[in-house]
Write a structure and sequence with these properties.
By secondary structure, the chain is mainly β. The protein folds into 4 domains: about 80 residues, RNA Polymerase Alpha Subunit, Chain A, domain 2, CATH 2.170.120.30; about 100 residues, Beta Complex (RNA Polymerase Alpha Subunit, Chain A, domain 2); about 80 residues, Beta Complex (RNA Polymerase Alpha Subunit, Chain A, domain 2); about 120 residues, Beta Complex (RNA Polymerase Alpha Subunit, Chain A, domain 2). Helix content is about 10%, strand content about 50%. It has 6 helices and 32 strands. The strands form 7 sheets. Strands 25, 26, 27, 28, 29, 30, 31 and 32 form an 8-stranded mixed beta sheet that branches. A hairpin with a 6-residue loop joins strand 28 and strand 29. The chain is rod-shaped and about 190 Å long. InterPro entries: c-di-AMP_regulator, YbbR. It comes from Paenibacillus selenitireducens.
């Protein structure tokens, strides 16, 4: 054995054998490696990958259409990489930087997740259509729904910071925009709506929302005043006393003819006018300016205005006889008719007093002589006349005026010379039987004339 080992040829043979074995081991590893690597690489197909647009100048253009909108890609990579990648990690991009309005065909670019390679993409290019944006200024309208609590009133909406906004749309849609508005519900509210933020929406001519519209600003603040129940009623002045002799009121100017009364609705429903102030004429001797407060009475909460100013012009009075003033008959029963017997002309003269400009401009039809025939039976009656004259004009003499009136049934009946119904006549076809007894006296069918002074008197006005 030692001789073999010491033999050089034997050593060379051993070295050769070892070299062959090592060579074989190395080459066997190289040929076995490819199948092992192949088992770690996989291929995957991903459908409907959405195209992402970059470089769009959104202030000038809108991306009107991309054809197609998704693509199909085939990728490869390690199984672990393909498994861990999410769909949104596969990015397909469309760069429209610098493009103008119109239709363009562009190639797509991709960004793959780490460790994954793109094999193919279908399609690799798309057709894109850009449309110019247009902007115009429009008014904002606020629509309310519902109603405030009973008696409360909603005022006009107040919009902040402005009631005008800018609306941006594709040029092809701008002609269709009709309004920009928002809606707020005020049903049952009793207090003003303040600082309510509302999102604005653009609508077309058919009332449909225009979703492509860009509104600047998109949100506004709205305030809606809610007023307490109130009622506007005429202001009536009560005049008391009488001006000193020889004076008359030429005119009265007042700062308000109506007042607004605030309070519960059931209280307001029973108020038709406001007459809680009065002016004492006996204290006026010359043109005067007055400021009178309006008292708040009962369950009324507030009155606006709180006071009223009056400018009363006083001048020397003049007198004038107004002729041919017509007489008016009022209050007659529907089943009766009336005729004026005296005066036959059916007109009278009246002497009036007042300021020169008022008295001298009077016409007969400006004054009324009224005979009240209510509750009067058929017959002839002396009826007192009531004199109605314009404000601040009065009758001078207080002597009562009368009119003689004949009242009859609308179905005619025979009357005597005095206008009274005739007594019924006995039948002509039979003769009375003489019984020897004294007949009872007949009743006078003609009653005497009556003097009807109901509601009589002259209405004297300062």
């Amino acid at each position: 054995m030692d001789k073999w080992l010491n033999n050089s040829n034997f050593s060379k043979v051993i070295a050769l054998v070892l070299a062959i074995i090592l060579w074989a081991i190395v080459h066997l590893d190289d040929t076995a490696a490819p199948p092992q690597v192949a088992s770690l690489i996989d291929v995957k197909v991903i459908d409907d990958v959405k195209i992402q647009t970059v470089g769009l100048d959104s202030s000038r253009f809108i991306l009107h259409k991309i054809t197609p909108e998704v693509v199909r890609i085939q990728v490869k990579g390690k199984t672990s990489a393909l498994t861990s990648a999410m769909p949104e990690d596969y990015r397909v991009k469309l760069d429209v930087t610098g493009l103008d309005e119109g239709t363009h065909t562009l190639s797509l670019t991709t960004e793959m997740p780490k460790g994954i390679q793109l094999i193919s993409m279908s399609p690799s290019s798309v057709q894109v259509e850009l449309e110019e944006r247009q902007t115009k200024e429009m008014d904002v309208s606020i629509t309310t729904t519902g109603s405030p609590a009973k008696g409360y009133t909603a005022g006009q909406p107040i919009i902040s910071p402005t009631n005008r906004v800018h609306v941006t749309l594709p040029a092809s849609q701008m002609k269709d925009v009709q309004s920009v508005s928002a809606t707020i519900n005020i049903d049952g509210v009793v207090n003003s709506v303040k600082q309510k933020r509302l999102k604005l929406t653009a609508y077309d001519k058919t009332g449909h929302e225009m979703k492509d519209a860009i509104i600047t600003p998109p949100v506004v603040e709205v305030e809606i005043p809610i007023a307490k129940p109130f009622k506007s009623v005429p202001l009536q002045i009560n005049f008391v006393g009488k001006l000193p002799d020889g004076l008359a009121i030429s005119s009265i100017k007042q700062s308000a003819n109506q007042v607004a009364i605030y309070g519960p609705q059931n209280v307001l429903d029973g108020i038709d006018f406001y007459d809680s102030i009065q002016i004492d004429l006996s204290k006026l001797t010359e043109t005067t300016t007055l400021s009178l407060p309006l008292p708040v009475l009962g369950k009324v909460e507030k009155i606006e205005p709180s006071s009223v100013n009056f400018e009363i012009t006083i001048v020397p009075a003049v007198q004038r006889q107004l002729d041919k003033v017509p007489i008016t008959l009022n209050g007659l029963n529907e089943q009766l008719k009336a005729t004026i017997q005296e005066p036959a002309s059916k007109v009278m003269s009246v002497t009036l007093e007042g300021a020169p400009d008022l008295v001298n401009s009077l016409k007969p039809e400006d004054v009324q002589l009224i005979a009240n025939l209510s509750d009067l039976p058929p017959g002839v009656h002396q009826v007192a006349l009531k004199v109605n004259s314009p404000n601040f004009v009065r009758q001078v003499n207080t002597e009562q005026l009368y009119v003689k009136v004949l009242i009859e049934d609308k179905i005619s009946k025979p009357t005597d010379s005095k206008g009274q119904p005739e007594a019924p006549k006995p039948p002509t076809d039979t003769l009375p039987v003489d019984t020897g007894e004294t007949p009872p006296p007949t009743t006078d069918p003609n009653p005497p004339e009556t003097d009807h002074a109901a509601n009589s008197g002259t209405d004297i006005k300062e």
